Amino acid sequence: MRVNCTVNGTDQSADDVWEGESLLYVLRERMGLPGSKNACEQGECGSCTVYLDDVPVCSCLVAAGQVEGRRVRTVEGLSDGEALGPIQKAFVECGAVQCGFCTPGLVVQAHDLVERVPDPSDAEIREALAGNLCRCTGYEKILDAVRLAASRRADSR
Question: Is the C-alpha dihedral spanning 54, 60, 63, 69 positive or negative?
């Protein structure tokens, strides 16, 4: 089947998609967007988190056919051209990237939180990121990055 959707603001299509193929596979292997990571393939770790119509989802759990005519935004779509987006920049500055495998999903989830909650509490940050696992276990720097990004966003308003 053919899948048509908008990815990071650009109309995209993928041909010969198998009915059971995941959105994650289509993004990585057919559209050349390797930012979302393939880790558990069960929606347990959050490494593959992307926006689907402005709602964060585990792309490993979304069948490719479900995205027909819909909008997808990946971690690549959170940058500003060649420049890092505010959340991405905060992750780098706070040393929250670590091995980098979980980072794309954490960045998308943190982006969603900061967009919805201008000044998130630590409890709100922890709850928002609860579905994203970091095997390096360095969560404190990740929390610092979200705090920094939220602070900068509040200051810019």
Answer: positive
- Specify the pairing of strand 71-73 against strand 55-58: unpaired
Q: Rounded to the nearest 5°, which phi and psi values hold at 153?
A: -65, -45
Name the nearest CA neighbour of 66 among 36, 26, 28, 35.
26
Rounded to whole angstroms, the Cα distance separating 151 from 138 reads 21
Is pLDDT at 152 greater than 80 in this prediction?
yes
Whole-model pTM over 0.90: yes
Helix (H) or strand (E) holding 56: strand 55-58
According to DSSP, the residues that pair with 73 across neighbouring strands are 51
DSSP 84: P
- Evaluate whether 7 touches 74 at the Cβ level (below 8 Å): yes
